[in-house]
Amino acid sequence: MNAKQFLNRLGLLILVGTAILGALTIAHSTMADGYELPPRGTEPSEMPLITNIPGGNMDGARLQVHALFSESWPWDEMHWQNVWTTIQWYDNAGVWRDVAGWQGGLDAIVQEDAGWVGTKEWWAGESNLGTGPFRWKIYQSAGGPLLVTSEPFYLPNLAGSTLILQPVLEPK
Predict the structure, then answer these.
(1) How far apart are CA 6 and CA 129, in angstroms?
(2) Global pTM?
């Protein structure tokens, strides 16, 4: 290859690289602009507003579930990624209601001395501290069989604190 061919190929390579960088810049800048979450249903006004902000500021408290999978858990048929958690609150009419937006799959699974533990964390803002009662419900999957329901509990009273619930998950 002579010097002229080398310079032509180098120029073409620079041109193509610049075009690719330009396209990536345009694609990236249009991805986040003006993005809004879809609207959610309305909730009763007396229901505490709870948001999922793991690692958020310490003006609120964390609520964690550390769900121990039993030794009889059928890993080949029931995958931990399908396990579904929801929080319910007890309203003034004596009815347990799902907290809209405070539902979802497990965040992670870790191996501890006792076995495999699935984790989920939610954040409650300062205005919600001390409210309740609430309860966790954990299902085999979204819409699937119920695995466990926690005892009623209240959110922590102290900002910066963490409430940890530790149910055992038995297959149904």
Answers:
(1) 69
(2) 0.65
